[in-house]
Amino acid sequence: MFKFLKNKLKDAVGKFSKKVEEEVEEKAEERIEEPIEEKEKIEQPEVKPEIKEEKKEEIKKEIKEEPAVKEEVKKEAKPEIKKPEAKPEVKERPEIKEEIKKEKPKPELKEELKIIEEKPKEKKGFFKRIREGVVKTRLSDEKFNDLFWNLEIVLMENNVAVEVIDKVKDDLKKQLCEEKISRLGIEKIIKDTLKDSIRELFDVEKINLIERIKQKKEKPFVIVFVGINGVGKTTSLAKLAKKLQDNGLTCIMAAADTFRVAAIEQLEEHANNLGIKLIKHEYGSDAAAVCYDAVAHAKAKKIDVVLIDTAGRQHSNVNLMEELHKVVRVSKPDLKVFVGDALTGNDAVEQAKEFKEHVGIDGIILSKTDVDDKGGGAISISYVTNKPILYFGVGQGYEDLQEFSPDIVLANLGLSA
Predict the structure, then answer these.
(1) Would you list the DSSP string of 173-204?
(2) CATH fold of 209-406
(3) 321 confidence band (pLDDT: 50, 70, 90)
């Protein structure tokens, strides 16, 4: 399952990762000179003390040469030193002296002292930040788009829908352009982002079909199968009937495909193999009438589930689409299941969109996934339609209906843990 896409994706991710690493390495080498210059600038020895010593010598010389100036300085300094301005106030108000003694240093001053003491440590932190700037960087949007192109081509070649490619691209861009990335572990970042993106593609409301059927109080639970010709609707219906039997549920089949030659005989063969009753009319009869009879029979016999097979049709076939609308109105299904052929890739996705728009769908069964090397349809269909995949058809036997899990897709793409 998905072997071709798995190999292509692995190769594309490897090349993409290598190019991103080269780009980050190049940017890091460009920036490495800046911190070195800054470091040299900071560590350069100061020359201020020498300048001060020279000035002292000059000042001493001037004072020796001009004694008159020295005398004037002394005269001016003496009266200022002898001024006893504070002493009388202390004598007259001794309580102020006591307050001065008792007064503790303000917490703000303590904080300032602490900051002054820690200044040398900040210098170390500064260089640490410079080193981080050297080993971590961001890609520009333009460069990312250029590097992503090969990976985008691989996804398109494997029938991955445009909406999904855009999501994967946006998720990767967020990691590589908006966040700073290290030169180490880039491939892991890309793989983890791809893994998360693909898992999110299936983040829709899940349907546990067996539980839902069992929880319905008023029987029967009606399921209508829709899709185009040749996708495996009738076979998928028979596989689901076997699964219901294995879970202790009773069911009948309704041959509402009265249009295609041999459609009734094909369904009848499956019904006989499984020991299930088939409700059928003649070819060309009203498909809605077959559905009405099947539901009425199930109510009378207290059958748990009615499985309705319909004629394959394109949305452009107005008459058959009108007939399908009538089938839905009469049978009032609890679930409308779209059956798509995984091998058709994007075609299956487009068909699901059309059926969702015209008659509505609630869940999806993808047939032939066991021989699907590309996997684009399986990856895209749930995200595009916002409907859950219920089962994968993985073979020709009645037991070959695998309950869907995102882990199946991730494992087959080589992206599981």
Answers:
(1) HIIIIIS-EESSSHHHHHHHHHHHHHHHTT-S
(2) Rossmann fold (3.40.50)
(3) confident
